[in-house]
């Protein structure tokens, strides 16, 4: 399949970030290529998510940050989450199985760029981080309990 590209202006409109800011930070944005003085952006690319002061100190924190980044349609690298790509893939799979994220059907992308939030995920992502961690722990506990129950009762 041939890769699709969009202009820098289109990317700016989609991401809500100014063209000037994107040009300034283009090296940190996966999917942006500079050819001579022109830029082209791989379809489905996202502007990086700013973790800010969020502490990445456990799996619940990582899942909450991923959910917030997906809800804002931002890119997030596994390096920012202090984990390996395979670990991030597991975190994404758990969020998917819990019904918080779904595929966006943009097949040019991988990792976090392949997902959007479900309605349930968007509602949770809007919570403050402290509240989100509590709700995420409850949801994951209920999900794991239901899966274990189904396994042992089958």
Helix content: 40-55%
Number of helices: 6
Total number of strands: 5
Please tell me how large the radius of gyration is: 17 Å
Low-confidence stretches: none
The string of secondary-structure elements, in order, is EHHEEHHEEHH
* Main beta sheet strand tally, sense and closure: 3 strands, antiparallel
Q: Averaging pLDDT over every residue, what do you get?
A: 89
Name the overall outline.
elongated
Query: Strand sequence of the main sheet, in spatial order?
Result: 1-3-2
What does this 3D model show about the protein?
- This protein has helices spanning 8-15, 19-25, 59-71, 85-97, 119-125, 129-152; strands at 5-6, 32-35, 38-42, 101-103, 115-117.
- It has 154 residues and is mostly helical.
- The strands form 2 sheets. Strands 1-3-2 form a 3-stranded antiparallel beta sheet. The protein has a two-stranded antiparallel ribbon with strand order 4-5.
- The model has no long low-confidence stretch (mean pLDDT 89).
Relevant terms:
154 residues, mainly alpha, three-stranded antiparallel beta sheet, two-stranded antiparallel ribbon
Summarize the structure.
With 154 residues, the chain is mostly helical. The protein has helices at residues 8-15, 19-25, 59-71, 85-97, 119-125, 129-152; strands spanning 5-6, 32-35, 38-42, 101-103, 115-117.
